[in-house]
Amino acid sequence: MKAIITDAGFASRYLPITKTIPKAMIPIGAKPVMQLCVEECAEAGIDEIIIVATPNTKSKEIYDDYFHNPSENVKALLDKQGKSERFEPVEKVLNFPKITVIEQDPNLPYGNGSPIVSAKEFVENDEAFVVLYSDDLILGEGDVKTLIEKYKEHPEAKAVIATQEMPEETWSKFGMVALKDNGTLSHIVEKPKTPDLSPSNLTSYGRYLLTPEVFEYLVPENTGLDDELWTVDAITKLAEHGDVVVAHSKGKWITTGDPKNYFMAHLEYVLNHTDYAEDVKKFIETH
């Protein structure tokens, strides 16, 4: 299977740093956000990944350099210094599944569906493919594996979406899932203003398994709220013509979509997934 990872916005909330580097190259621990998304795909058995970068920037060049540059000068220096083991993380990056970096089509409307349309030629003849928004990270067991497993159980599904239960005070910030009587997706209520307008406590975020049928609805003419091209609008259309299976995440979803949430995501990752977590905890306790 193939995966599309999107990072095609301008990340204005992160300026000025994102005028120079893509947002998904900001680090979580010692790895950029994008690498964690790639690792989630690799661990699930994905064999080809398409990264969609922001057009008319250096983003494509930066991603290509990160995932494909063998950095022979760095390796030679580390070998000379007797520190060859420090190059092992680079070798891991160079041995990821096939990664192709493209730019989003600048002629498409703004919206989180446009990066997917930009990668259509890579996946339109496949049975299904996975989509990840690089804003969203999954700690623990990755959602890509869960989506694939659920699709194998329901090969007739038009799509599979990942969901997570969220506390009531957060419902107004996310897309909340409405279910049909059979437990599949009915539709998604975007950012309900009051709790009573939310159809459930399940939120949908940037982890989807889609079939190529989605491209019948994910077209430039089908813009929605704020004249943007929304992936969830196309998924809702799929749900009108068949089952969109709802999969419950086995990990923990965290977002890096803005500096505050990025900091908290980074801190949670450090406290739970690094060998210097105890030192950080002691620092926090004493300051």
Kindly state the number of beta strands. Answer: 13
Structural class: alpha/beta
Q: Into how many domains do the coordinates divide? A: 1
Following the backbone from N to C, one meets helices and strands in this order, namely: EEEHEHHHEHHEEHEEEEHEEHH
Query: Strand share of the residues?
Result: 15-25%
Percentage of helical residues? 25-40%
Question: What is the molecular shape?
Answer: globular
- Taking Cα atoms only, what radius of gyration do you get, to the nearest Å? 19 Å
Distance between the termini: 47 Å
Question: What CATH first level would be assigned?
Answer: Alpha Beta
Which tags fit this structure?
alpha/beta; two-stranded antiparallel ribbon; 287 residues; 9-stranded mixed sheet; Spore Coat Polysaccharide Biosynthesis Protein SpsA, Chain A
Can you characterise this structure?
- Helices cover 32% and strands 23% of the residues.
- With 287 residues, the chain is an alpha/beta fold.
- It has one domain: Spore Coat Polysaccharide Biosynthesis Protein SpsA, Chain A, CATH 3.90.550.10.
- Strands 1, 4, 5, 6, 8, 9, 10, 11 and 12 form a 9-stranded mixed β-sheet that branches.
- The longest helix is centred in the C-terminal third of the chain and has 15 residues.
- The chain starts with a strand and ends with a helix.
